[in-house]
Amino acid sequence: MLGIGGSLREGSQSERALRIALAAAGERGVVTELIPGPELVLPFYDTAIPERDERARKLIEGVRRADGLIVVSPGYHGGLSGLVKNALDYIEDLREDTRPYLDGRAVGLAAVAYGWQAAVTTLEQLRTITHALRGWSTPLGGSINSAETKFDEGDGASDEKSVRTLRLIGEQVAEHALLRAH
To answer: Which residues form the NADPH-dependent FMN reductase-like domain (predicted)?
Structure first.
């Protein structure tokens, strides 16, 4: 299972949220991999340029191997970050695969923003993108208002409900991945 997201700041609130969801998935017995925000600094996606740098190749291969994904984006001005959107655009490189795009994969989604409006609209955008890429978004998604919830350096946050939501998202993706493996 692959987790992607966060912001350019190492240990950002959205990266910490992603780590909580991935940890819960790992506890269900799936192998997890994390590509945090600082590793998502990629050239703008362009289908006309076939060459990919090392980070783009790592992302594409990680998605290709994954039986499930967890994507967490910060919400900026009512939408997902350009960093996360550009990373998701690279999934276009899987269009010719036997399992194209996110076909058959469960995708857990969460948005972390300073305010409810951006958190909710960012989550909706992530769901729309996931569906366009043929992914199955989990029934539960997370909209987390960072004005009210602060994540700590461990696997916790000031709001236990946010932690439970993120853990359930990770568990749902793991369960789907394990079912597909059998």
So the answer is: 2-139
| Residue whose entry in the numeric block shows the structure tokens 């043929």 | 134
CA distances from 125 to 52, 79, 145 (A): 26, 7, 16
* Sign of the Cα pseudo-torsion (47, 50, 54, 60, in order): positive
Q: Which tokens is 45 given?
A: 């996606």
Torsion of the alpha carbons at 15, 18, 23 and 26, rounded to the nearest 10: -130
Q: How far is C-alpha 19 from the chain's CA centre?
A: 10
Q: Which residues pair with 71 in a beta bridge?
A: 4, 109
34 touches 22 (CB < 8 A): yes
Backbone angles phi, psi at 2, to 5 degrees: -115, 135
> Beta-carbon neighbour count of residue 109 at 10 Å?
29
Q: Is this prediction's pTM over 0.85?
A: yes
pLDDT tens-digit map of 93-143? 999 999 999 999 999 999 999 999 999 999 999 999 999 999 999 999 999
